[in-house]
Amino acid sequence: MSSASTNRLHALDWLPGIEFFEADFGGQPFGRHCHDAFAIGAIAAGIGGYLCRGSRHSLPRRTLSLMNPGEMHTGYALSPRLRYRMLYATEESVATLLDEAHPRGFRELTADDRGGGIAHRLTEIRTCLDAPHDAGWKLRVETALSELLRHTLTRHAGLTHRPPGQESAAVRTVREYLDALAETPRDGNSADTSLCSLAERVQLHPNYLLQTFARQVGIPPYAYWQYRRIERAKALLLAGETAVDVAYRLGFHDQAHFLRSFRRITGATPGAFLVHRA
Questions:
Q1: Residue 106 domain-assigned?
Q2: CB atoms within 10 A of CB 203
Q3: First vs last Cα of the chain: how many Å apart?
């Protein structure tokens, strides 16, 4: 890779077998190599290419790169600048996040990213990884990962999975737990809250819980918890607490992060909310 190349690799320590890679380069090609994981990538700018399965393949913007574990290939840029994002997930990590012990391989090496859905999900994961690691950070990352893997493997690898069910008791238990965390997030539990830990609490598979919860509640667990935290924030603000104190009490990384979250959900800043209520 040329000296002008830049790349970043994120390894998720609590999820072995998951890595997220960003690259921006236009120099020397990668040598012949393979990965021990499923590789899901999207070209953000420029044109990439590789030699695999005896043929050369070009990947313009909004094209997906889909590679199976153990497939030998080379990688190179076909334009002066190439930017792309890749998610690497071993078969074991896929089995952990999805209800599928032996996922099938990708049928094609490249595919059109219809509507930019996969690229959008990769961007969302990058945003999650770059965001402040506040309460519920792991839950947010695992939700985005599960949705990306399920969407990609279902469409391009023939994945079949158990449809969402009617696990009302399990969903109620998770809701009650998230409600409690929204009230007392500084008790030390919320920092390690993850999709896997919620699933273990109710003895369900993480992906099955994610789909079932979203079907019954209308939003996934992380979004529900964020909504409940902001509802709690409203009550604290009306009781006279400052935005700084509310941000700390509810487990936000800092005041700025709290303000962004509050505005994203309510459409207003805390100050505008108080003026409106007054």
A1: no
A2: 9
A3: 60
